[in-house]
Fold this protein.
Amino acid sequence: MTPYSGPWTAAQAAHLLRRCTFGATYNDIQIAVQAGMSVTISNLLLANSTDEPLAYDPAEQIVAQGQTWVSAVYPQDVTANQQTEGARMKSLGAWIAKNLNQESLSLTEKMLFFWQNHFGVTTSGDARAMYHYLHLLRQNALGNVKQLVKDVSIDPCMLLFLNGSTNTVFSPNENYARELLELFTVGKGAQLAAGDYSTFTEQDVAAGAKIFTGYIVQGVRSSTQNQVTSQFMAPLHDNSSKVLSYHFNNQVVNAAGATEYANYIDIVFNQPDTATYICRKLYRYFVNCDITAWVEQHIITDMAQTFVANNFEITPVLVELFSSAHFYDISVRGAIIRSPLETLCAMLNTSSTTANFDLQTTYQIYLSMYGLADQMGQGYAAPPSVAGWTPYYQAPAFYRLWINSTYIKKRFDVANVLTSNSFNVNGNIFKIQVLNLLNGLSQPASAPQVIEDLCLVLFPKDIPASDKLAIKAILTGGLPDFEWTLQYNEYLADPSNPTFYTPVELRMQAVLNVMFKMPQFHVC
Amino acid sequence: MKRRSFLRNGALASLSLPFVQNGLSMQAVAKKLFEVPKSAEDKVLVLIRMNGGNDGLNMVFPRDQYAEMLVQRANILVPETEILPLTLEVGLHPKMTGMQTLFNEGKLSVIQNVGYPEPNRSHFRSMDIWTTGALDINQTSGWLGRYFDSAYPNFPDDYPNVDYPDPFAISMGSEVSTTCQGLMGNFSHAVSDPFNSSNLLLTSVANDGTYYGGQIEYISTLINQTNEYGQQISSAASAGNSLSNLYDPQNPLAVQLKYVAQMISGGLQTKVYILNVNGFDTHDAQVDQNDFKEGVHANLLKRISDAVRAFQHDLQLLGLEQRVAGLTFSEFGRQIASNGSLGTDHGDAAPVLLFGACVSSGIVGANPQIPNQINNQAGLPMAIDFRDIYASILKDWFEVDQQVIQGLFEQNITYYDMLQGCTNGSSESAATQLHKPLVFPNPSLGQHQLKFTSINEFVEIYLIDQSGKILQKSFEGQLNAGQQLLTFEIQFLQTGLYHYLLKSASRQELVSFQKL
């Protein structure tokens, strides 16, 4: 891949951060400009650390408020058991939104969601299992993909989701074996004959099902077990030799008990299709949905080569991609439509707006964030299918599926709520910290510069000068620029005085409200 | 699931409790208070914002004090003989011949010395005060937004609907108006050209053939398609008429007012139109140094005067005069004394103009007093509170119940006869004072205040629901004589109508409020 050797300015730095995080501030962009491309990419590889989700809802009946429930039993009573699960799922949903909103400048959350979309797992009826599954993805988000696929294969959540937990020698279940090939590794190609999909056949699905037999799940919402666990039960395992199809050179997978599945996954990863398939998905996630012949030949092939050469470590692939000339090519700038979570977080994270109230209020607000993204089409813990969200794979529309007449209205509703004082939880107003945003810009007292900086932070490309003037007129309330300067300086001289900060805040809210509703904000 | 309840509950949709409401009694009581009378349904209010701080003394002249004016602003003062007389004491800027005509036809009212206590000379803060209709820094809803919230609950979730297919308010331009900011949404819809139904966008970026251009075009198209009012507005504008030949196509306000006339005559049910004229921040070169009746300010006044005259003429020809009234306002007036750069600096009170066939009277309030000696930077003190003008318009024009109006404003309202020129003798005496207890804001969301006067006695306040059940005792205690202001949290209440019962040895009074 041709490395990028052009100028490193705010435009390139902002592009990198927009694609790799859920929202960067003006200051983040300036730091990235100073640090240069490679240092910025290295910094993005540092993990985003998180705490564990905490009990906050009164329906939780085991753990005290403020304590984590991820390793706690459930009540024995059926009703209490269900109520506690409801409380824990709410806590988990809030915690997911909180992590996205409070991320450090790291690739972790973006890659974590890549895997959540990749495996398409929906919650399994035990919040602890879902938490530990997401934790597994997080731990491996930037790590070894072959190992991740092995771990996911026997994770309780996945075993419950794709029927692995009932896949036995007595009644094989093909669900997981099929999706492993079709969606997680080699991918499904053109149908060559009945049951032959170019990359695998029905024979491989049947063989795979036998290979994965024997794992059961224990402890779902148990009142005695503090974890959901998966366990290999030898008597349930199919000990025959499994013969794969001609696509796999008719290799034989011999019975090997609890680790047999890992041997099989090694074989699957030896197929060149696996690297290519995963790299195409990465490309669509980070660069552009249109994989042209040129992209296939010059970008995907190189990515796959790097992937294989590094024994399926993902980081070298990402570093090469984010350092490439193609990634910064103006032709792919602004090519992606922001997902609902990216849209919501771009509204909040660009101003470092977080919810910092008492535990209950904070979690309620983050749960609302989770719900708002859900209403816009992206409920994090419940992908629409095992294939993930359609905008990442459904040709030819791809990202455009994030926006339809209902969803665009929801996006505008969210913009209205976050740029006003109407989001009231327990008497606390949650709104974008517009003063924070303003004060972090290069020259907050200069109305034209404020608009210039906001365009850099919020839009992928420069917009026409006439548009900037129209936005500026909203900031200045139609007055000459110097009146904004005076007003801002008055506020600066007495920043805690509402008489001075409120007018500034209201003008900024009006500006953001309009910018969030411009089409340019919804692409990145 | 509605956003309103979603946000309030702050819970996953499936986990929120269904809310059962006692529909019948709620409706019965609420109807009396909040229903919009039939006769008020087709009334239209036009607001013209003179942005930047209008120099009222260069618009409405106290003719009886020309000598004092000459002392304070000799370098900008219009020659005495050029001033257009309205009465013996009051005159208009020479460029405002249109307004003079309206005055002579009984269609213009000049309200003198309008402002508010403890004036703030920041454009931004003062404009916020004028648009929210409140001095309270925490008030972020607009005065019309609060009225709309009370009359049309569940906005924006339940709108548009069959009964209300049109936007409640239209703000001409690209920004919605703060005057119409409600609790959960802004009631105004920004329109730059009513004949173009796709007018939600600030701009349209042409598809330049790049991936970016394609996505922008796609999103723009969808945004325009979802403009649920766009079609209503453009078909009304197309169906509408304009009959006056007085509109000057070079005058942007005239062009916009012509649009408004077309939308009204085309049957749009929009109740409020907000227009904006920039450029009133005349710190320097307010007048032409060679001819003080000419210059920047003169041109702005001419633009407004000509446009309103044409609009009023049009309404007369269209037979719509009795349905439309208009008000000009600015964030403040300017100082009495001019500065050295042929301009004026930020001041305080100023006159506002109320126009329409139904105005009650010509001049409201006495001329400002221009002393020979003034303090540095003196502005005109206010005589009439602008919030009382808003309240009076709501009462006269939209026929809002006075108890409801009082709930929209923080001051004890003094009503003025404003727009009773078309009604038959129902005029009430001016300056009607309300001494009943009041809840502010009403309708309310998280918390509100109960305001009342008490004598020195022991008072109990009960919170009562619509069925008459006492929910709690909200207050009890010995009060001193005087104005009382109690803050109550009502976050915990479900949506509906409630009452406070004030009980003491001397009285027993009920005051109602709506929880949103």
About this structure: Chain A has a mean pLDDT of 96. Strands of chain A lie at 215-218, 229-232, 242-243, 252-253, 424-425, 428-429. Residues 78-101 of chain A form the longest helix (24 residues).
